[in-house]
Write a structure and sequence with these properties.
Blueprint (H helix, E strand, L loop, with lengths): L11 E4 L9 H4 E3 L6 E4 L6 E3 L8 E3 L3 H8 L11 E2 L9 E2 H12 L5 E2 L6 E2 L2 H10 L18
Antiparallel strand pairs: 1-3, 2-3, 4-5, 6-7, 8-9
Length: 153
């Protein structure tokens, strides 16, 4: 018995096979040799987007958005002039600039900046990691309320 292993292309992830492909499918999707699996282009750190602030027309790497805003637009979130921005890549609009940076890194670049020390789960937002520690980290399960042993007493 032979097992057929399908290797997905670098930079792609498995996507649901659609009965009708969108008009621009070639820019985001590819098919494997057997035409049984559909792959969607995965966002990478070299994803480029236009700066969301109106006077700036620079194209920036997604992972460099925080640095770009800090260096080229000092005070961008303090004067109230550019508090709300829209993501040029998706339908998210009316975001604060700080939330926009997290949105780009998490959604379009796949960057996670925090890792659980107990189970290696990755998180983009600190609050998500804190909630993980409190509720669901398998490495901390023995120490949660109701699970601790009273051997020290």
């Amino acid at each position: 018995m032979t097992t057929h292993v399908t290797l997905r292309p670098v930079g792609y992830r498995v996507a649901k096979l659609l009965s009708v492909l969108p008009d621009d499918w070639a820019t985001t999707l590819t098919l494997d040799g057997s035409y049984r699996f559909c792959y969607e282009r995965r966002p990478t750190k070299d994803f480029r987007l236009q700066c969301p602030l109106p006077p700036c027309t620079k194209a920036i790497y997604g992972c460099e958005i925080r640095k770009h805003l800090k260096v080229n637009h000092p005070g961008f979130s303090q004067d109230g002039k550019y508090r709300k921005v829209a993501c040029p890549e998706c339908t998210m609009d009316d975001m604060e600039v700080g939330k926009y940076v997290d949105h780009v890194l998490r959604t379009h670049c796949g960057v996670s900046s925090r890792r659980c020390a107990y189970c290696d789960t990755e998180f983009t937002l600190k609050d998500d990691m804190t909630r993980h520690y409190i509720d669901s980290c398998p490495g901390l399960t023995p120490y949660r309320r109701g699970n601790a042993t009273d051997s020290a007493l």
